Amino acid sequence: MLDNDVPALLVAATGDPRTLYAGARAVREQWPSSRLLTVSGARQHGLYGEYGNTCVDTHVNTYLRTGRLPAHDLTCEV
Fold first, then answer.
1. Could you read off the pLDDT of 15-63 as tens digits, one per residue?
2. β partners of residue 12
3. pLDDT at res. 4
């Protein structure tokens, strides 16, 4: 159990066998100020910048550039 809230952008793939999506959902629930960027159907761990997913790259770059989280959780398709 985490005892603090963190305003972070979490990026997780639904099909990555090394980092289970359920874990990302659990962290998101424990950090109400965070947002979860779900990559539906992805089976790889390194999602940002490596695979050319415009949706993921755009949302992560916007967060890094502005420091502002999206208003709600988001989903990108593979």
1. 989 889 999 999 999 999 999 999 998 888 777 877 778 999 999 999 9
2. 38
3. 83
Pair 5, 31: CB distance under 8 Å: yes
Q: Is 49:57 a contact under the CB 8 Å cutoff?
A: yes
Question: How many C-beta atoms surround the C-beta of residue 40 within 10 A?
Answer: 12
C-alpha distances (whole Å) from 64 to each of 16, 34, 58, 60 are 24, 14, 10, 6
Minimal CA–CA distance to 28: which of 45, 10, 15? 10
All residues at 6 or more sequence positions from 31 whose CB lies less than 8 Å from its CB, including other chains: 2, 5, 6, 7, 8, 10
Cβ-contact 60, 37 below 8 angstroms: yes
pLDDT at 1 over 60: no
Cross-strand bridge partners of residue 13: 39
pLDDT of 2 reads 60
